[in-house]
Amino acid sequence: MRYLLKISYDGSKFYGFQRQKDKLTIQNEIEKYLSVFFDEKIFIKGAGRTDRGVHALGQYLHFDSLNKQSPLKLKKYLNRNLSNIKVLKVTFVSDNFHSRFSVKMKHYKYRISFSKKDFHSNYILYSKKLDLYKMKEASKCFLGVHNFQNFVSGERDNYECIIYKIRFVRFFNHLTIHFYGKSFYRYMVRNMVGALIDVGKGKATINDILDLLNSPKTDKMLSTAPAKGLTLVNIYYNNPKKL
Question: What value does the CA radius of gyration of the chain take, rounded to a whole number of Å?
């Protein structure tokens, strides 16, 4: 049987999603309790690996077991035992479903506060005044298909991906930037946000971003936004009707 779980978590309490020896990670914790529940060694596969400090409202993962159990019973068991992780949904899926490779679109958001009252928060980045008009104009550079090598950490075989939409929402002293795309690689959203903040502060220009997108492997880099402001909002496995 293949099970699909939808979860949320407080990333400030973990060393990221991916399994690490002797570290408190989301994968370690969930696999530990799943293995007890099913009385067999369970390995999960997530839709993506959020970094240390990154939060999730709608992360997905799947795993296989020969032991068929009630999804409701499993959900209640996990929520009784897990800390800072909440299981939102448990369902059965077909054997050809894959939590990562079946993804159609991911939605991330990054939160910025212009109030010092939020400065020590683990869930929002404090910043002084930013030029939002310039940031919105600069964000258009990321739309469509690009080689994001200069915005990704680590080595990959392929750095190409597509960004469908970037949306800015200002509410009093809070700014939320929403990113919608097919896939996001390590540090990619944080590097895009960092670049936009640099533009908003007058430290970079639209041409700087275009140069990074059009010239892979350049030594010139812009800022990386801290992990704490980033949240994985949702993952779509069917094409969304409207962005």
Answer: 19
